[in-house]
Specification:
Strand content: 15-25%
Largest sheet: 12 strands, mixed
Distance between the termini: 31 Å
Shape: globular
Order of helices and strands: EHEHEHEHEHEHEHEEHEEEHHH
Radius of gyration: 19 Å
Structural class: alpha/beta
C-alpha cells in the first residue's frame, strides 16, 4: 500500500458510538466518520464481527487495541444475524451494526472475529453455525488478513482445517506465562521471550493437531494454556486463543458471574495477588497485547493489502486456504 502516515493517526469509528467517549477519556485519538470523509487518505478498512453477548464492552476492548497504531483505521461493526441481543440495546444494534448482506460485496484489509461463550457446545448445535461457515469462507476472498479470537479460533480450525476442538475437564481461567516458539515471526516482533496473557475458555485446539498443518505455524504457547498464537505463513489468518484485549477486571467479572450462577468456579490463576479475590488484580499483559494488535495491523494488514481494494479477491483467491 502507498500510504505514508505523518505522526499519529486516528481510529475512525461511527458517529456517536458509545465507545468514543471512553476512548477520548483515555486520550486515544479518535475521529468520527463524518470528519474522516474530509481527509485525503485511504484508511485501513477493518470489519469487526462481534459475537460476544456484551457487545459495547467488547467494542471498547478491541477499539482500544486498534487505536494504538500510527495508521488510520476505519472500523465497521457487523452482527452474525438479526436475532435480538440480550445484553445490548436494540437501538445500539440497529444504529451501529451491519448485517452480512450489507457487507458481502465489500473488500476489507482486515477482519476480527471475536470469541463467544460457546466452548462447551458442538458446532452443529450453535444456532448461527451455517452463517458462521458462510462468513469464514467469504473471508478467504474478501479480506486480506483475518484475526480469529478464542472461540472463533476453534470454529475456524474446525471448518477451514478439519481440526476438532477438545473440551477441557475444567475451565482455563487466569493469566499465564507464554514462550515464543517462532521468535522471528513478525506478529511477535518486539515481544519478550516470556510474556503473560489472559485466557478464559472451556475448550482448546490441541497443540499437536495444529502442528500437523503445513500452512500454519505455532508462534507462541503456554505449558498450561496451550497454543496462544498461531498464524498462516502468508499472514492471511491469525489465531489468538486468549484475551490480550481484556481490561483489568474482566476475569474478575467472569469469576463473580460464574459464582452467582452456582458453577463453583476456580479462582482465576495468577490473577489476584495472593490468590485473594478481594484484592485488585495486577495487569501484566497490556503491553504485549497492544504490540500484538499493532503488529497485526502493520505486518499482516497494512503491508499485505493492495492500495486498490478491488484487487484483494483477485490477488489472494489463488492462495489455497486449506491443505490438500
Amino acid at each position: 500500500m502507498h500510504i505514508t502516515p505523518e505522526g499519529p493517526m486516528p481510529i475512525r469509528i461511527p458517529d456517536n458510538l458509545p465507545a468514543s467517549d471512553v476512548l477520548q477519556r483515555e486520550n486515544i485519538f479518535c475521529i468520527s466518520s463524518s470528519d474522516a470523509e474530509h481527509q485525503d487518505i485511504r484508511p485501513l478498512k477493518i470489519l469487526l464481527l462481534n459475537l460476544m453477548p456484551k457487545k459495547i464492552e467488547t467494542e471498547i476492548h478491541l477499539l482500544r487495541m486498534l487505536a494504538n497504531s500510527p495508521l488510520q483505521v476505519d472500523v465497521e461493526l457487523m452482527r452474525i444475524n438479526d436475532r435480538p441481543s440480550k445484553n445490548t440495546p436494540i437501538e445500539h444494534m440497529e444504529t451501529f451494526y451491519k448485517s452480512f448482506n450489507d457487507v458481502r460485496h465489500n473488500k476489507y484489509d482486515g477482519m476480527i472475529i471475536t470469541g463467544a461463550p460457546l466452548g462447551q457446545k458442538e458446532f452443529t448445535e450453535v444456532s448461527f453455525w451455517d452463517d458462521m461457515k458462510t462468513i469464514m469462507d467469504w473471508t478467504t476472498t474478501n479480506v486480506t488478513s483475518t484475526m480469529f479470537l478464542c472461540w472463533a479460533v476453534q470454529a475456524a480450525m474446525y471448518h477451514l482445517y478439519d481440526i476438532e476442538k477438545r473440551i477441557l475437564k475444567e475451565k482455563i481461567s487466569g493469566v499465564y506465562p507464554h514462550h515464543l516458539v517462532k521468535p522471528l515471526s513478525p506478529i511477535v516482533r518486539g515481544f519478550d521471550d516470556v510474556f503473560d496473557a489472559p485466557h478464559s475458555r472451556y475448550a482448546e485446539v490441541p497443540y499437536d493437531d495444529i502442528a500437523t498443518l503445513r500452512e500454519i505455524e505455532i508462534v507462541a504457547a503456554s505449558g498450561i494454556a496451550g497454543v496462544y498464537v498461531a498464524a498462516r505463513k502468508d499472514g492471511r489468518q491469525l489465531f489468538i486463543t486468549g484475551h490480550s484485549e481484556y481490561e483489568p477486571l474482566c476475569l474478575k467479572g467472569e469469576y463473580e458471574r460464574d459464582l452467582s450462577a452456582g458453577l463453583a468456579p476456580a479462582i482465576p490463576e495468577n490473577y489476584f495477588p495472593g490468590n485473594d479475590p478481594k484484592q485488585d488484580p495486577i495487569v501484566t499483559w497490556k503491553s504485549h497485547g497492544n504490540l500484538l494488535f499493532s503488529n497485526w495491523l502493520n505486518y499482516y494488514v497494512y503491508q499485505l493489502s493492495p492500495f486498490d481494494m478491488s484487487t484483494i479477491g483477485k490477488k489472494f483467491a489463488r492462495i489455497p486456504m486449506q491443505l490438500a
